[in-house]
Amino acid sequence: MKFFINYFLITIFLISISFNFVNAQKIKGELILGMNATQIDGDEVYGYHKFGLNTGVGAILPFGKHWSLSVETILNQKGAYQNESIELDTLPTPYYNIRLNYLEVPVMIHYEDKQTITGGIGFSWGRTVGITEIEHGIKVPTTTLASPYKRDDINLLLDIRFRIWEKLKFNFRYAYSIIPIRTRTYTNSAGNSWERTQYNSLLTFRLIYVFNEAPDLTPKTVKEKKK
Domains in the chain and their CATH numbers? Predict the structure, then answer.
């Protein structure tokens, strides 16, 4: 755990130093707090019914007039939830409940329009730091950090941000695993078996406070400066 935290901090530091040499603009900092609505595709449970935290810090590295690179270190909680079985059996509830905790590093390229709307695309690498899986009200003892879920999760990210007040922004992000997090074999009551590969799918809603951001030079601001 300590190794990965140090690795993330060193990565952010080295990228920041590199951009300082090639970019006269100041690096911006981010405080991030939000929530995920998540599901796992391929787990025979449907809907974004599991909620979790998405929180951490980040750095924004501008280059050019409208472009920037961002790097984050976040705690990202994923999973899936269904209270009752689709077949309405009498087994204990919840029918299925899994929490996957990741320490994650998203890296994104952003395009900003007039300091109001920002769109971005990128990838993230996450390392599992905690798993709890419950089926029919009973914790699955074989689910550990070592198996059956993969320790690493790589995601494609799509991101849009809106300024809502000065340096405070609202952020919506969609994330989807580009490699399976698990392959599982299911068997029904009739004895039929099938195999499914599983992927994390997230809808994320966050508030981001940006430090060291230049003020928006609106026409009103420019007029006041001339006075």
Answer: 2-226 (2.40.160.20)
